[in-house]
Amino acid sequence: MYEAGYTPGRPIPVGAHAGTLEDFAHRFQRDVRACHKQFEVPRAEKSVPLLEHWYDTRNLALALIHIQQRGGESPGPDGIRPEHYTINEWFDVFRQIQPLLINGEYDPSPPRKVEIAKLSGRGFRTIEIANLIDRIVARATYQWLWPWMEPNFYRRSYGFRSQRGTWHALREAVRVSTRNDLYHWLCHDLVSAFDRVPRNRLLDLLAWVPSAMLRVLSRLIDTGRKHGIPQGSALSPLLLNFYLTKHLDTPWQLQCPLTPMLRYADDILVLVGNNEGAQSADALLRRLLTPSGFQLRDNARDATSNLGAGESADWLGFTVATQANLSVRIGEQRWRRLERGLERASATEDGASSAKSVLKGWFDYLGPTYDHEDRASVLRGAKDLADRVSSNGCVPTRELRDAWRNSQRRWSRLTDPNPRLVLPRKQRQIPAIVVQDQDECPF
């Protein structure tokens, strides 16, 4: 629905929108799709007319709702949380920052930095926690950029993308490997990928973004160093995918269209048939990544696993090996994640409940391993680890086994070549703030 005055065939002016916040977001995505039909890549002359959607209070409200529902609980340096203001007060805040966004003058405050241990056990990762209003602006910027970027991403890129995840990446790796007899797995990891993104080169690739937004975006991703984008920002995963699409995914498809490469954020998997193929793939990865500012963690020999010769490959927290068919087992990285999760749970006020949630969530992820692990041994190991790390009681084995079994059923549905027709699960609902009377509406 839209109000009178709209000319068919042209983007709907922001002021002509009517309906819920979700309707507003869907209309913007529809307008962007219409632009994609004309141009394969974003063009400045097409993105500028849609800039109003970025600083519209409804887009900022959608960003706030997302942070409330899915964002972290830790506040920024100012200590402000979403519940500190009513929705009408938040709209007053959004109207106050609108002129700064329109003119490209919005300047975020310095974030709070926190170090967390990496899942690999090798070093620490610095997370930057910004003030809530800065996170809202970053998320609103993401919501504007995402529809332009997503259609151009590599089809075998799975990290930080809608309706994709580690299970989808693992399913594709197993499917391609078994179907084409490609049992040499070249598993690479980029060293400190977020910290190595060349910001100036990234901003050059974003020249199609309207200048006001680009000025604000450059401040949002400024880390105070020559290179790098901040970990913890809503924008960073999207921008990392965008940069790697230009400098790795697209060149790879042009130079090696018959060699499957899968990427989950900064984790890369290349499937080849022999050691010579692995060496060639490793050399090409280095030729593409080194000039782009990145570095591979391991050499070709250490990164290559010959599954056909009985070796195993560790990727995305799973250990893949051959036992008649490819088997998927729990990797060391997953056990470290469980241990750290239990340590954090034991430090909370409600330690027993938190530890229970960590354990059930851990088993809820392990669906691909259910048919390949010694289940009794895994259950016993998880409970022993919980008893050693946390003294807040334990979860009944039956509950953990049920969580694991339910996870296996979801994995089976995902990998079923002939899926049954099922009704879609109810999607996350956005509060229905409806535009009726402009005088009564908070935006």
For the report, how would you describe the main beta sheet? 4 strands, antiparallel
State the CATH superfamily name of the largest domain. Answer: Reverse transcriptase/Diguanylate cyclase domain
Derived structural class: alpha+beta
Give the averaged pLDDT, no decimals.
86
Q: What is the name of the CATH class of the largest domain? A: Alpha Beta
Number of strands: 9
Q: Tell me the fraction of residues in β-strands, as a range.
A: 5-15%
Q: Which shape, going by the Cα principal axes?
A: globular
Please report the number of helical segments: 17
Strand order of the largest sheet: 4-5-3-6
Low-confidence stretches: 1-10, 421-428, 432-443
As for the CATH topology of the largest domain, it is Alpha-Beta Plaits
SSE string: HHHHHEEHHEHHHHEEHHEEEEHHHH
Amino- and carboxy-terminal Cα gap: 18 Å
Level-2 CATH architecture of the largest domain? 2-Layer Sandwich
Helix share, percent: 40-55%
Number of domains: 3
Write structural notes for this entry.
Helix 4 crosses helix 6 (132-149), helix 14 (332-346) runs antiparallel to helix 15 and helix 14 (332-346) packs parallel to helix 16 (375-389). The chain is an alpha+beta fold and 443 residues long. Mean pLDDT is 86; it is low at 1-10, 421-428 and 432-443. It starts with 20 loop residues before the first helix and ends in a 28-residue tail after the last helix. Helix content is 48%, strand content 10%. The strands form three sheets. The chain has a four-stranded antiparallel β-sheet, sandwiched between helices. The chain is globular and about 65 Å long. The chain has helices at 21-38, 44-47, 52-55, 57-70, 87-102, 132-149, 166-180, 193-196, 199-205, 211-220, 235-255, 275-289, 300-303, 332-346, 351-364, 375-389, 397-415, and strands at 112-117, 124-129, 184-189, 261-264, 267-272, 304-306, 313-315, 318-323, 325-330. The protein folds into three domains: 21-108 and 133-151, no CATH class; 166-323, Alpha-Beta Plaits (2-Layer Sandwich); 331-414. Belongs to the bacterial reverse transcriptase family. Residues 97-320 form the Reverse transcriptase domain. This is Group II intron-encoded protein LtrA.
